[in-house]
Amino acid sequence: MAEISTKPYLLRAIYEWCTDSGYTPYLAVKVDAATTVPMEYVRKGEIILNISYGATSGLKMDNDAIHFRARFNGVSRELYIPVQNVLAIYANENGQGMAFEVNTTASEAPSSAPADAASPSLSAVPNGAGEPAAAPEPATTGPDDDNEPPKKGGRPTLTRIK
Fold first, then answer.
1. Domains of the chain
2. pLDDT (mean) for 13-35
3. In the chain, N or C: fewer CB atoms in 10 Å?
């Protein structure tokens, strides 16, 4: 039996946490031929989408894809996002959420491959020995290197560390 991916379950859990906490859930998506989104809003092969209850209609988060209707510049559009193409889901207000590695998008995956070849990599998940998996190496330079307190105000951003 093929292994079932945890990614769609984690996406639904973070979405539910965002809505229960009063936050606005946002999705970062890698756009390819299998993704149906308004291309005029795609930047650098990615799109950020507000998937809150008020911004969507008929939101359905299946194990294979997320689909819903949303308005862009007043025009209702049907969106289809393969779960495999989701880069992150997070709360817009504070940036808390989860990022995923997308090694193979839905249009690049062979038809015989499992539905989700890219599994989330979580640094706090125990490995076989019951110890946490190794955390990724910290970047040599970054916003925390100058030991200044974070700036207040402004819009939160999601930072992906590879």
1. 25-99 (2.30.30.220)
2. 95
3. N
